[in-house]
Fold this sequence. Notes:
The protein is mostly beta strands. Helices cover about 0% and strands about 50% of the residues. It has no helices and eleven strands. The protein has strands at about 5, 10-15, 20-25, 35-40, 45-50, 60, 70-75, 80-85, 90-100, 115, 120-125. Strands 2, 4, 5, 6, 9, 10 and 11 form a seven-stranded mixed beta sheet that branches. Strand 4 (about 35-40) and strand 5 (about 45-50) form a beta hairpin. The protein is globular and about 40 Å long. The model has no long low-confidence stretch (mean pLDDT about 95).
Amino acid sequence: QVQLVESGGGLVQAGGSLRLSCAASGGTFSSYTMGWFRRTPGKEREFVSAINWSASRTFYGDSVKGRFTISRDTAKNTVYLQMNSLKPEDTADYYCAADRTYGLPSSNPYEYDYWGQGTQVTVSS
């Protein structure tokens, strides 16, 4: 029922910026906790960022703090990930996820109910 579609990935030079979008449909987006995760082949899935239903609480993985910003636009049923000061180690497939559970945003991927197909981000040095 719920579908998440990521977009905005691509190739960017180190130090540059990129903005990812995740469009949601088929559910009550405004009440969901939304998260971003990333994965590089050969490495485990890594938590990037999350935002609660009211956008009053956000948090970030240690590796992206101070560089990435998560936000959401209820009118557009979309969550964003603004990525600044990108580094080659940010290269990964980025996935959007939705959690129906009310409460604090979670960094645990197993607490999320719906996932997008991913969008690739490549940062060149």
